[in-house]
Amino acid sequence: MKITSKLLLSTTAFMLAGVLPATAAWQPQKPIEFVATAGPGGGTDNLARAVQSIVTKYKLTDQPIVVVNKGGGSGAEGYVYGKASAGDPYKVIFGTSNAWQQPLVSKVAFNYTDLTPIAAMAQDEFLLWVKQDAPYKTAGDFLKAAAATEFKMGGAQSKDTDEVLTRMIEKAARIKFTYIPFKSGAEAAVQLAGGHIDAHVNNPSESLGQWRGSTQRPLCAFSPKRLPQGPKVTTSEGWSDVPTCVEQGLAISQYEQPRTVWLPGKVSPEQAAFYVDLLKKVQATPEWKDYIEKTSQVDTFLTGAAFDNFIKQDLEHVKQVAGEQGWLVK
Amino acid sequence: MENLQSLLHGFTIAVTVPHLTLMVIGVLLGILVGVLPGLGAPNGVSLLLPLTFGMQPVSAIILLSSMYWGALFGGSVTSILFNIPGEPSSVATTFDGYPMARDGRPTTALATAFGSAAFGALVGVILITFLASWVAQVALAFGPPEYFAVYFLAFASFVGMGGAAPIKTVVALAIGFAIAAIGIDTVSGSVRLTMGIDELVKGVSFVVAVMGLFGIGELLIAVEEEFQARAVSSRVDWKEVFRALGRLPQHGIALLRSAAIGCWMGITPGGPTAASFMSYGIAKRFSRNGARFGTGEAEGIVAPETADHAAGTSALLPMLSLGIPGSATAAVMMGGLMIWGLNPGPMLFVDQKDFVWGLIASMYVGNIVAVALVLLTVPVFAALMRIPFAVIAPLIVIICVVGAYSVSNSYLDVVLMLGFGVVGYLFKKLHYPLAPLVLAIVIGDKAEDAFRQAMLMSKGSLGIFFANRLVTTLVLAGMTLLLLPLALQIVRLLRKSDEAAGEKVRII
């Protein structure tokens, strides 16, 4: 027995020594699965596929990567899958703030604490959009009109980011909206173009084409400062020309949706560190910059304590809104 | 005229050696994923997507759309030969395609399906070419009440559709709605009907349901009833391919009507699945041979196939011009467009002329390539029918099990699929119709969402379904289709009871 264990020990030590000169202590030994908690074509899916193509192009790992979509139940399918894969470092889950918001408001069989947080990369901004030929020029005009008649506000899903923001606007401006949930932001955008709803709070990429095509325009951005200057969207305006909502008298200074990356629970710190490192490398490539610009997102990278803090703050905030609306599940 | 010029310019982009090669590759891959159940066009296209990142956008979309055409064609093959629909939209093809193939005419069934599919696709492309801007406007007029009215129309065309008792159709619809409700509800955000099984939060996949209901269900019936009679002696006959194609013009009215239904459903995002079902339902009601539908009637293949492809093709139009995908595959392609740096939406036609018209031209060429390739494969596929039942039956079980598992790598799906097999068997035995059940599973939750969104908008007033001309027309058309069989039955009953009453009088 003793001899065997000694032999094993020394073999392990030998193997470790062989691996150590590499950048991380742990390296994947079999194919990696990227789980997008959204259907094909959505923002989360695009992120997973963008990371996949960059990792493959720069050979950041020797192992092949496959992207699978588990977007059922507003993403719950993917998170539940992550929970069930506890201890498996070959499943990387791509999601949004859904991971901690969804368990608050619906009886899903997971919580974000079942997963190992890796990073938040890229933040999607929110804007207030109206139909191109709507009479209001500023958010102030819009709110005044909304106070007179109850407006129809569209958004993606129920009790999710879009509705939370809608309820925050209601509170800040002391008005009332009828919120109509659609399957996705893209659907809400088409409904606005057709004049079936009065406004929505889509991310830039969800309504970019509609703005260029002059069917709808942004009134203000829910951001502490104006969005970064990119190429012009219409002939005269770009994202940086959109005023912030605070400038226009709507006191919501910041509202963002992070794109989050997770491992299943019970993985070792070395395994988590490998993926943090991998994503950092991805973020340093020109292809990543290109992806960020094309999808009009904001480049960020939160990991470790900073990410934990972000989650805690956001959670407090959503809890408050959800509590006021009576959404919290027992 | 301007469109025609742009189209000709598009042809100079599409008809080049590299692009034709891409089309052939795309179509062949598409046929493959279409034939393998559980894979399907949306998965196939998303698997291929990463390969296209380095390509020119126009080459990439030609590859992906060719794969889409191939998959649409391939999806019909297993529906006809084994009663296993590879795609949601080819379920309706099984109703007459499978009986015809089992009857010893698989070549005829396949050739008829492919021929009418090609016709549908052609009508769809012509529509895109000449009415793009008009069509985009029509689609914008569709809000939640209009969506619901379209789905209502699709359901209405099925209730009371001969064969089964209307009450049994309603029961089947109701069970379908209940299955569609499983998972997270869009409007309230809460979890429904998961019965404590966490995994059910994702809902019941259509593919899982259909493979059980049709594939396994049919197998159980076959085992019970005609174990010996199943091996079909079909000679591989090239001439029959052309003869079947030559007979298509006889179904001229069905072809035109189905193409119209398909285009309409593709544009008003009802989608190819609703289109094929509705087309089959309406054909059955209005065709002279309506009573023989379900026994291997050619028109019963023509109607769903034409509508399916017309809808599948025209579903790309709202994606390009509005940024709203008309089908699951279109949704994946739209993701691709964004990654290639193009923004689907009204400006695409102005900013990216080469891309748009290259794609439209490739639809003409790609569909011709797809038909040619797929017709070549007919004898090969038809030959599969000669394999004895004892060999093919276990193969069907394997295909269904693997297909169900591969939907989302979940063992629960396999169990569900087998459960659906038993349901399918019971439905057949008790003479309940499967089609309304499937239709409700596929578009039940969409119809429910649309209805509840409309109710939110109107604060609970049903008046919203009569608020404008478009929605009123749709609702009235649906009501007519729904009540027509009932009215006919009442008239018939009244006549009978008149006679009966007369008799009674005499007796008394």
Automatic annotation (TrEMBL), chain A:
Keywords: Signal. InterPro entries: BUG, Bug_dom1. The keyword Cell division does not apply. Residues 1-24 form the signal peptide. Belongs to the UPF0065 (bug) family. PANTHER family: BLR4371 PROTEIN, TRICARBOXYLATE-BINDING PROTEIN. This is Tricarboxylate transporter. It comes from Bradyrhizobium retamae. The lineage of its organism: Bacteria, Pseudomonadati, Pseudomonadota, Alphaproteobacteria, Hyphomicrobiales.
Automatic annotation (TrEMBL), chain B:
InterPro entries: DUF112_TM. Signal peptide: none annotated. This is Tricarboxylate transporter. The chain crosses the membrane at residues 20-40, 109-136, 148-165, 170-191, 203-223, 322-343, 355-376, 383-405, 462-488. Keywords: Membrane, Transmembrane, Transmembrane helix. Pfam families: TctA. Residues 20-439 form the DUF112 domain.
